[in-house]
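*** Residues and shapes ***
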Amino acid sequence: MTMPKENTDAGTNTGAGADTHTDAARALRGLENSSPSVRLQAALAVGTSPDPRFVDRLIERCAVEPEFYVREMLTWALTRHPSDLTVPGLIDELRSVGTQARSQALHTLSKVADRRAWPAITRALLTDADDEVARSAWRAAVVLVPEGEAAELAEVLATQFGRGGRETRLSLSRALIALGEVIVPTLRAAAKDPDPRVRQHAIATERLLRDPDAGFEFAVEEAKRVVALGVSGQEES
């Protein structure tokens, strides 16, 4: 009796497992493609079918991807994977010398929103010399800060009053406002700072806290008037 021949070729992969492996390899190659649209579709595919094999490559790509909308898709793809897999790698990126690596890792941590990452949001990151890194750190911090530590965070953020241009100042105000009423003592203290830029920014932030619909530009102009008029101006306003 002739027995069926056994397939002993270990190098031959067939079936769904082989298809999955091929799809994963194709998606990972797509992340390196010269076309932004191809990279976008690859990131979408990776997020649609999460796989632990993708995590390290997604994090690596975040550090060098030049297109904003592709980076956003990479972040989304990472949020589709378990935080137990993504958070350690993202925290490692916070020590990178590359500003984009740090900034995008912080941005992604704010979207993952796993508070186990909180200890990695250091004062050094919150005061980073690069505006984009600092702004990303502010946004991540207000998402991840544990209950009872918001006031302490506000004090650190207040050291950045008067920093940068309009977008940076607005980002700081929004981060502080997201912490709620706990920031008021810090704002009042900063409103007495010797530096007029710090005073203006603190006063504008409190105006926005009280009236979110006022708009940042209006709040800044009002703050400038108050600072220019001094204490008597504050009493009149």
About this structure: The chain has a mean pLDDT of 87.
